[in-house]
Amino acid sequence: MIEQIDLNRIPQHIAIIMDGNGRWAAERGKPRSFGHQAGVDTVKRITAECTRLGVKFLTLYTFSTENWNRPADEVSALMGLVLSSLEDEIFMKHHVRFRVIGNINRLPEEVQKKLQQTQDHTAQNTAMTMVVALSYSARWEIVKAMRANLREILAASRGESNGSMVQQLTEETFSNHLETHFMPDPDLLIRTGGELRISNFLLWQIAYTELYFCDTYWPDFKEEDLQRAIASYQSRQRRFGKTEAQVEQAESGERKTFCE
Q: Which cofactor does it need (predicted)?
């Protein structure tokens, strides 16, 4: 599969909805926690492969705000997995920087401390940034960013008219208050497990992201599956609102400039 990939056009940012852990475990007569543990092993493999290919940002949807509604024993097991999976091996071996996004204040204090320690310990790593979405909801993020942006505008308004203040709320100022302000929007979003929905994940950021869905459960997702998703991404023309002819003309001009 690797021979079908252009290593010069690897997506800079890949986001993944890691779905299917529970169903994978159920098909084997195991508890759901068994599937989540197997999913951690897949995270390690895919992280290593992303760094090898040259991906710069990998964002993993690990635990959504809605997941708090799951049975207490499963939530507890997931929190335990978060703690045990934040090992030096997965980050220091591959020189990966760790970041977390989401409503972290809802997490157990022990988990919050471990997350911060891992972020601090890996802050100087430069090969790739792994971003884990924990207790995350895109709608929560958007409302939070809107409130922060409005507070900033009101604090600086000094008697300006409402119309003037409204004009200060732009896509750029809004984006600066999102959880993901430190990285580019995803180029490619992968969802495993056969479901065809986004599930409240990065709704603002994926406006022009290429989407890839596969039936493979996350514990079975291999390096070849990642390569297949990247090959699909590279086979598409990203137009960002332009026509096909405009994109081809721009690409032709870039090639001509490069050759000169």
A: Mg(2+)
